[in-house]
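Sorry to interrupt, but I need a hand with the structure work. Go ahead and set the record down below:
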Amino acid sequence: MTAAEFRDPHGDPATWTSADHESYEHLAAIDAYTTPATVHLLLGGTPNSGKNAPIAPATAA
């Protein structure tokens, strides 16, 4: 979810709770990182998450 996606259903920020404001600020901070890989790492992934293991070299029989 992006900050914009959060704001649309929540309406006027003047009516938000402090928790709503904090949520929006955290989402906006994540939005500052534009690559999905960076967001994935921020949310707990590892650099190798979702990647296949390297292919082992063929051995002579």
